[in-house]
Amino acid sequence: QSVLTQPPSASGTPGQRVTISCSGSSSNIGNHNVNWYQRLPGTAPKVLMYSDNQRPSGVPDRFSGSKSGTSASLAISGLQSDDEADYYCAAWDDSLNGWVFGGGTQLTVL
Amino acid sequence: QVQLVQSGAEVKQPGASVKVSCKASGYTFTRHGISWVRQAPGQGLEWMGWISTYNGHTNYAQKFQGRVTMTTDTSTSTAYMELRSLTPDDTAVYYCARDLGYCSSSGCQREWFDPWGQGTLVTVSS
After folding, report:
1. Nearest CB neighbour to B110, from listed A32, A88, A102
2. For residue range A44-89, what is the model confidence (pLDDT) as tens digits?
3. Nearest by CB: B44 against A33, A96, A101
4. Which one of A7, A27, B6, B80 has the fewest beta carbons within 10 angstroms of its own beta carbon?
């Protein structure tokens, strides 16, 4: 069981907006920034969003991040087939003195 | 460009050890630590620990303490992760990642991982 809770799956049609949630606690999300990683099929994870809502260069502005209290969200607007991937949230956990991840959300573009 | 290249797939018997390497290029190796993360089949990502490439300090996840050793060779810009007493539950893809966090006299700033290595599949089977 992962420390951070994500829905196992999400889906949408091209052009739609989808949101992926990530729920934690005061020892992780409530006290630290959240990062999001995207793992395309057959590839290593790459950072998609850092410090709650910052996009690395090269990540389109269709992707956005937010955080409130002990929960965070990743939103993808204008969904494209290339967005089919696994998405993971991550945060530092003070109680465990280490990084914790969500279980991952598999996004399907119908 | 910044790149981490890992060693190839391994097949090990239960009880054995495995040592995975992670060679960095495109940046000053000692400026950022290395974290190791694994993903078992059908499971999520699991952080195993971190090593400072500057002074060799380590921080292992409690689950792996006593069974994992992380080291670096600054002369070759390579990080290593050794896991001992392997069981079939250790079958996973193991990733190294450049950890952009840092610690100073005023505390530690947790950042993010970028980039990741391509992953090394370790299969534990008799």
Report:
1. A32
2. 999 999 999 999 999 999 999 999 999 999 999 999 999 999 999 9
3. A101
4. A7
Query: Which residue of A92, A99, A105 to mutate against B (max B Cβ within 10 Å)?
Result: A99
Nearest to B63 by CA among B99, B37, B41: B37
Is B113 touching A (CB cutoff 8 A)? yes
Instruction: Choose among B43, B92, B36, B94: nearest CA to B69.
Output: B36
Other C-beta atoms lying within 10 Å of the C-beta of residue B106:
6
Residues B65-75: pLDDT tens digits? 999 999 999 99
Name, in order, each residue with C-beta under 8 angstroms of B26's C-beta and a sequence gap of 6 or more.
B1, B2, B3
Rounded to 5°, the CA angle B76-B77-B80 comes to 95
Instruction: Determine the Cα–Cα distance for residues A78 and A55; give it in Å rounded to an integer.
Output: 16
CB-based contacts of B71, cutoff 8 Å, min separation 6: B51, B56, B79, B80, B82
Classify A32 as helix, strand or coil: coil
Cβ pair A3, A97 in contact under 8 A: no
Look at A100 and B110 and tell me if their CB atoms are within 8 Å: no
